[in-house]
Amino acid sequence: MKFRSHWSFPNSIKFGENRILEIEKSCNSAKIKNPLFVTDNNLVNSNIASKAINLIKNFSSNNFIYSDVDSNPNQINLFNGIKKFKSGHFDGVIAFGGGSALDLGKLIAFMAEQSLPLWAFEDIGSNWTKARSDKIFPVIAIPTTAGTGSEVGRASILTNTELNMKKIIFHPQMLPKEVICDPTLTYGLPKILTAGTGMDAFAHCLEAFSSNYYHPMATGIAIEGMKIIKNNLKLAYNEPINIVARSNMMSAALMGATSFQKGLGAIHALSHPIGALFDTHHGMTNAVIMAEVLKFNRVAIEDKINSICSYLGIHNNFNGFLDYIYLLKDELNIPNNLKELGVDENKIELIAKMALEDPTAKGNPLELNYKNTSKLLENCF
């Protein structure tokens, strides 16, 4: 099978080896003549970033790089990025990297010319309608990991440092105009990030599938996403330049983020405040707590999980699915619990309260309250 295609679902996606070479074509399609290149400090001096930067130099202005992007980006990163965007008279963004760089790049393009303050657009009710749609700049998204799926998302996550809380900012036009998915860009991804981002994609699929909301299209995508990850994540982890595994994992990341239109749940409701308070890697946090959330939700999702085990190649129904998660964590060297991840057990009360305020909590199959959420957290240590 040749892993090369051009999809228009959910947005325009150029997929395949060396599609990064088409970056100027993508900018032309999005009517971007002078793009701001947004990436993170850990990536900006890498070979893969240099490749993209050299291509952009052929058609863009000097001083077009912005890399003040934390692993859990915050409003300071954003405001500095907006300042750079305005001072350089840029007309669009190329967001290059993992979920953090993609989320921040999308937010820079969204907020650069808005008149209302940032938090007015938090994903609550119809807040997004307050934005000036004609003031949103186009984005080209180029992922270098296979997990968050921000490249096909209409929202970004940002840490409010004043509240130590992660907030979701949403607008339909935050969806990138074009995406370049080049699996070769993930060849150099460290094992720990291959594991963490891959488990993030699995969490997206699992929680979307488990959600009680009605969205059969998302359900189908989520099931297939889990199967692809099951068949390819360990291979990508052990053979980092395996083009088949890397291509499939990059595809599964797209599927996870597309499917979670249906909803997320307790995994993300807990990982968001944990990441905000302790600066943990989002996907790795999801991986650590995944099994405990499965057990917590068992009474509500067991029949659903049983219905897909045969298709996934898992025996013994729900128990077998749970055993698979434990085995996968072990094979990917995922920490056993939140304590090993560096989370303070004395903050359970605070984390539980913050989790209940997170928008993803509403999508959990079992209703979350302070008592059961606190107990769930205790079991994660």
Summarize the structure.
With 381 residues, the chain is of the alpha/beta class.
CATH-assigned homologous superfamily of the largest domain: Dehydroquinate synthase-like - alpha domain
Q: Total helix count?
A: 12
How much beta, percentage-wise? Answer: 5-15%
How confident is the prediction overall: mean pLDDT?
Answer: 95
The main pleated sheet reads as: 7 strands, mixed
CATH architecture of the largest domain: Up-down Bundle
Alpha carbon gap, first and last residue: 44 Å
Query: What coarse outline follows from CA principal-axis ratios?
Result: globular
* Uncertain parts: none
Q: How many beta-strand runs? A: 9
Share of helical residues = 40-55%
Q: Strand order, biggest sheet?
A: 1-2-9-6-5-3-4
Can you identify the CATH class of the largest domain? Mainly Alpha
- Which structural class do you get from the secondary structure elements? alpha/beta
Provide a descriptive summary of the structure in words.
The structure is a single chain. By secondary structure, this protein is α/β, with parallel strands linked by helices. It has two domains: 5-185, Rossmann fold; 190-379, Up-down Bundle (Dehydroquinate synthase-like, alpha domain). The chain is built from twelve helices and nine strands. It has helices at 23-29, 47-56, 75-87, 99-111, 191-210, 216-238, 243-259, 266-278, 282-312, 317-331, 348-357, 370-379; strands spanning 5-7, 12-15, 35-38, 65-66, 92-97, 139-143, 155-160, 165-170, 178-181. The strands form two sheets. A seven-stranded mixed β-sheet has the order 1-2-9-6-5-3-4, sandwiched between helices. It has a two-stranded antiparallel sheet with strand order 7-8. Helix 4 links the parallel strand 5 and strand 6 (139-143). Helix 5 (191-210) runs parallel beside helix 7, helix 8 (266-278) crosses helix 11 and helix 11 packs across helix 12 (370-379). The mean pLDDT is 95.
